[in-house]
Amino acid sequence: MRSLQPFLYDDQINTVTFELAHPMHTIVWEFTVREEQIAAFISAYDSDGDWAQLFRRADGYLGTELLRSTSSPNVFLTIDRWQSLASFENFLDRFGAEYKKLDALFEGYTLAEKKVGVFSSLLRS
Fold first, then answer.
1. Which of 26, 44, 46, 91 is most buried (most C-beta within 10 Å)?
2. Which residue ranges form the domains of the chain, and what is each CATH number?
3. Residues of the chain falling short of pLDDT 50
4. Which of 40, 19, 25 shows the shortest CA–CA distance to 79?
């Protein structure tokens, strides 16, 4: 779990701020899924699916969220959260072969796959 420093009070401007000791590392992917593979895709990519089960084997994994488009029912986003970039890199070092196997196994589920980006939480001070 992320460690939070206690709230800090800035007496000069009378505001409350907080600071995350380690910014969370978040990876967002967008998938366009073949209609006939939607159920299988959801099973593999949801928060209890094959990907999440693999990620849970590593320290620093915080969770996965699967979102479905309301306007295009075969478009999905996955949001994978890690404690830090180092946590994710350690996962890849340790489980890279398994990651590649799953990626190849599920490749046929999608028409398109795009890494939307990698994000970190904002530090406030």
1. 91
2. 23-120 (3.30.70.100)
3. 1-20
4. 25
